[in-house]
Structure prediction request, 385 residues.
Amino acid sequence: MSHLFPTYAKWEVEPESAKGSYLTGIDGKTYLDFTSGIGVCNLGHCHEEVKAAIEDQLSKFWHVSNLFPVGVQEKAADLLAAASGMDLVFFANSGAEANEAAIKLARKATGKTKIITFLSSFHGRTFATMSATGQDKIKHGYGPMLETFEYVPFNDIEALENQLTDDVAAVMLEVIQGEGGIHVGTKEFLQKVEALCKEKGALLIVDEIQTGIGRTGTPFAFQQFGINPDIISSAKGLANGMPVGAIAAKEALKEYFGPGSHGTTFGGNPLAMAAAIKTMEIIFNESFLQEVNEKSEYIMSALDGKLGQNMHVKDIRGKGLMIGIEMDQPVGDILSELRKDGLIVLPAGNNVIRLLPSLTCIKEDIDKAVEILEKRINFFTKVTV
Ligand SMILES: Cc1ncc(COP(=O)(O)O)c(C=O)c1O
Prediction:
């Protein structure tokens, strides 16, 4: 019997090792990994330069506490602030913790408590971030949620207008909803959200936990929509696999997070910081991001070409290397068949196959993945529908 709580319906592949876009199981079989640890290992598994940065820090010190000034935290904060256009950073250990910090900061800075989020959003599993999430299925059995969250349909500006009153502290959103099904916000909607927030004195929080760190072809996805949030949250890809989370916010919010107002033992851990610095140095680079955009165009047109005609494929959408293939049926069985074919991908919602390849994948990896997807999806839809 496993002594782990069965909180995850585990796959049958147990990894022995992983490198770049590939993962080898203890059964000796090699898989093309188009999950990147759910959008975490954006530079691929065991990236050599990130590994060297961690090893260098490993021989200096691992943990000293946040009572000390820590140079690697300062440097990581500089890089994050510069790439996001923000001024101040707080480091945590995970996405949910980053969003907790964002929620606390917004409530304290505005003196208001109501926060609007969107249906199908996902913001984490702590009490506040679970309450923020616009999906009932993750709340089941936990009793009353925090009452200060309200949910409106995504991309529906009228619904937001009706809800966004003067007593709202913040609007919190993913510009592309990841877990909820790769729903891309429209530029028009997101710009109106920002304008409404300004009008009503609410802060705009953008959750960039899945979309950030180059995943969509820019350092952060909000940068493609011409909006200017007050706070962003980041995690997942920030340190290429070392646990980390962060918020980055505007200078005007500085006084609300003074000494003693918020904290964490492990947040900003030096090993995670060393990994984050190297990861950001590599990804926040014009030519690197240009390649991500080229790969994005390549995979999108290959998927359109091979699957666009299948009547059971409802839509192929996304940005950069965050891609959803929406089917007219649940995708769980297709995903397990794909693993047998040697390709590991994710679901998003019930009906969407989600691809989050490493940003360093090469065209041959994309060709291989598209070929497997084409064969399996065409075969599956022929025999099951
Ligand atoms: C958009 C978004 N926000 C928050 C989270 C929660 O992050 P974590 O699992 O690191 O707490 C996730 C994780 O999937 C996410 O995709």
